Automatic annotation (TrEMBL):
PANTHER family, per the entry: RIBULOSE-5-PHOSPHATE-3-EPIMERASE (PTHR11749)
Known pathway: Carbohydrate degradation
Gene (name only): rpe
Name of the protein: Ribulose-phosphate 3-epimerase
CC cofactor: Fe(2+); Mn(2+); Co(2+); Zn(2+)
Active site residues of this protein: D35 (proton acceptor), D175 (proton donor)
The keyword Plastid appears for this protein: no
Length: 216
């Protein structure tokens, strides 16, 4: 079974967003990954709801929304209204993660929890059966084009073990520094979904790169 691919729009040319999204529409990509940053949780600011409304109109792929913001629980309704299929909140940003996960699901979205590189997988022991997906950050969040952190491979293996041990149906998504080489290692370790920014949008043929990543 091939893995799912979620191209990260952060690496696209925002001057021609329509063309970039249409490229993804015409590809074998499964989802479109949307990175929202607030300049507080991460040292960068990307874009917010007005831009997401526009993306929602153009994208034929379900939106995989990654919120790199403090207190994402405050914005569940807005995220839903801006077209999210799945809402990723950071473990490090949620004081009441269990409640937030339930609220996301009640709102009609899939719920995912994201781990920064330093956050151990074992902290998910008591929430793993409630989430639809775990997003493992394989770079420190905030910027595209960074180097893949090798420890993420072992981390994915440990997460896979936890999922099997707890009889969870959570998917494993990995985000940051994914290309054909790192993607292969991470899929072999148990990843189900690959996020890819620069390796897709800076490729000479993004549609072809998506197909290659999907075959890993
Ligand atoms: C980083 C974002 C990523 C980023 C990935 O904070 O969460 O989704 O766009 O970009 P690449 O694939 O270029 O590392
Ligand atoms: Zn992301």
């Amino acid at each position: 079974m091939s893995c799912k691919i979620a191209p990260s729009l952060l690496a696209a040319n925002f001057g021609c967003l329509r063309e970039e999204i249409n490229r993804v529409n015409d590809s074998e990509a499964d989802w479109l990954h949307i990175d929202v940053m607030d300049g507080v949780f991460v040292p960068n600011i990307s874009f917010g709801f007005p831009v997401m409304e526009y993306i929602k109109e153009l994208s034929k792929k379900p939106l995989d929304v990654h919120l790199m913001i403090t207190d994402p629980a405050k914005f569940i309704n807005e995220v839903k209204d801006s077209g999210a299929y799945i809402m990723n909140v950071h473990y490090e940003a949620c004081l009441h993660l269990h409640r937030t996960i339930q609220q996301i699901k009640e709102c009609g979205m899939k719920a995912a929890v994201t781990l920064n590189p330093h956050t151990p997988v074992i902290l998910l022991e008591d929430i793993i059966r409630d989430v639809d997906m775990v997003l493992i950050m394989s770079v420190n969040p905030g910027f595209g084009g960074q180097k893949f952190i090798e420890n993420s491979i072992e981390k994915v293996s440990r997460l896979k073990e936890l999922i099997l041990r707890k009889n969870s149906s959570a998917l494993i998504e990995v985000d940051g520094g994914i290309n054909l080489e790192t993607g292969k290692k991470i899929v072999d370790a148990g990843a189900d979904v690959l996020v890819a920014g620069n390796s897709v949008f800076r490729a000479s043929d993004p549609v072809e790169m998506i197909s290659k990543l999907k075959m890993l």
